[in-house]
Amino acid sequence: MASNGRYTTLLLFEAFEEALKALVAEDEQVLTWPKAKISYAHCLAGQLQLSLRRVLGLSEDSASPTFFSLPSDVKVDIFVQGTDVLVHDRKGKNLLGLIFSTDYLSKAQQELLHQKQKEGCRLVLGAAFLPQKEYVLLYRPKQESMEYLHFNRYDGTTTLLKQREVEGESDIRQLVLGIKDRKKRKKVVSEPGQ
Question: Which carries the bigger pLDDT value, residue 32 or residue 171?
Fold first, then answer.
């Protein structure tokens, strides 16, 4: 069996990116369903299992008895340890942790990304599946900052958008996503005859 050293950050990101391409190409309808987080997780975990096998150079023969096995007893699970999808060995070695949403990730979700990174997860990513956008917004925590990347749904490329400090004073060079606070409107009830 290969060691977990075989799962480099670069390889894990490549597998994630390939899984995301396949999800958008093959399961795009799932991304339009309301409140379908379990379906997203299931589809993405399945695609990640396949893409990990490809990037590791393992057989893609689905008839093989070892088809659902990855080196070092690594598994792809959903909704474990606060993540939506987790690639790990179930003995405490976390390789890839994913958290996603159908909207921009909340502050609590972004803090969870940093927490998972501090706990030693090799690669931690957030994904905002924004139905109205032509991209998936990816979040990648760094020491004291957050990288924002765009995964283009049409051509499958990923580009760095911005990096933002998460601690300390505001900086005019920081990324502003343009999210406005929404105020609930009160319903106006009209009286009969008006």
Answer: 32
- In the predicted structure, residue 122 carries a pLDDT above the cut 90: yes
Q: Tell me which residue of 122, 120, 138 sits closest to 130, measured CA to CA.
A: 138
More confident residue, 69 or 129: 129
Ramachandran angles phi, psi of 142, nearest 5°: -120, 175
Question: How is residue 153 annotated by DSSP?
Answer: T
Beta 145-152 vs 158-165: how paired, if at all? antiparallel
The distance between the two most distant Cα atoms of the chain, rounded to a whole number of Å, is: 80
Which residues neighbour 83 within 8 Å (Cβ) at sequence distance 6 or greater? 97, 98, 99, 116
Tokens of 59: 């057989």
Angle in degrees, CA 19, 23, 24, rounded to 5: 120
Residue 180 has pLDDT above 70, yes or no: no
The residue behind tokens 């956008």 is 133
Rounded Cα distance between 42 and 59, Å, is 22
Helix intervals (H) in the chain: 9-26, 37-55, 107-118
